[in-house]
Amino acid sequence: MNICIREFCEADLKQLAVLENELFSAPWSEAMLLESCQKGYSWVMETETGEIIGYLIGELVLDEFSLYNLAISESRQNHGFGFRFLTFLKEKMRQLACRKIFLEVRSRNQSAISLYRKSGFQPLYLRRNYYSQPVDDALTMVYELKQEGNTDEKL
Ligand SMILES: CC(C)(COP(=O)(O)OP(=O)(O)OC[C@H]1O[C@@H](n2cnc3c(N)ncnc32)[C@H](O)[C@@H]1OP(=O)(O)O)[C@@H](O)C(=O)NCCC(=O)NCCS
Prior knowledge:
Blueprint: E1 3-7, H1 13-23, H2 30-39, E2 42-47, E3 52-61, E4 64-72, H3 81-95, E5 100-106, H4 110-118, E6 122-131, E7 136-144
Parallel strand pairs: 4-5
Antiparallel strand pairs: 1-2, 2-3, 3-4, 5-7, 6-7
Coenzyme A binds at residues 23, 70-72, 77-83, 105, 109-112, 114-115, 118.
C-alpha cells in the first residue's frame, strides 16, 4: 500500500480525535490536538485514498524532541507502519540537528515498548504511578541521534 507522511493540519482534527478515542484509555481532547497542530512537529500517515491510518505528535525544543503520541489505527496495526513512522521521525530529526528523542510509555504497553526497542530506543527510568485511567508506571526511553561531527559524550 502506498502511504505518505505529511504535516498534521487543522482539517485532520476530527479524524484524529476519533482515532484518539478508539486507541487510548485517556484520550487527548480536540483542543489538545489543535494545540499540537499549531506548534508544528506533528505528522499524519495517510493512504493514497486519503484515509489517515496513524499520527505522531511531538515537540522540538532546542536539540531535544519529545514524542508525546504515536498511534496507528487498529485495522492497520502490525503491518510495519509504526516502525516506518519512527524511521521517518529519526531522519527528520537528524536533518534538524536534533540530538535526542525522548518519550514516555505505559509500562504495561508491551507492543509499544517492543516497537520502540526495535527502533533503537533505550529505557532510561520508571516514573511510578505516572499515569491514571488506569494507574500505571511510565517508562522513559531515549533515542540518541548520531550527527556528523558530533563528539559529545554518550548518555
Ligand atoms: C504501538 C503501535 C504504535 C505499534 O504500531 P504498529 O504499526 O502496529 O507496529 P509495527 O507493525 O510497526 O511493529 C513493529 C514492531 O513493534 C512491536 N509490536 C508491534 N505490535 C506488537 C504487538 N501487538 N505485540 C508485540 N510486539 C508488537 C514488534 O517488535 C514489531 O516488530 P516485528 O513485527 O518485527 O515483531 C500501535 O499498536 C498502536 O497505535 N497502539 C495503540 C496506541 C499506542 O499504544 N501508542 C503508543 C503510545 S506511547
